[in-house]
Task: structure prediction
Amino acid sequence: MSLSQEDRDFLRDEKSRATTHAAVVKRTAKAKAAHDIWSAWMRWQFQCGQMNADGSFTIPKEKVDRWQRQMTTEFEDLPAEEQKSDFQVADEFMGEF
Result:
């Protein structure tokens, strides 16, 4: 038994919607993980510095120096302890990927 053109069109459209829905769900989960990582990092930064009376924020020089070094260093070149921290973040926030 063959399907009518209408049935074939319907099945094609349903498959497309299901694929699109799955892609949206996956992309949303990735965006949530990115936001969760960023939020955790911002909470950490605000614990490391000082809020000023004018609403600005001061980060201690040693943190600035360390974070600038880390952001310009490839993951593979980080010390083992710093790689461990990144693995912990990956496991916590990105385990499902």
Notes: Helices lie at 5-48, 61-71, 80-94. The chain has three helices and two strands. Residues 62 and 91 are 27 Å apart (CA to CA). The chain has a mean pLDDT of 90.
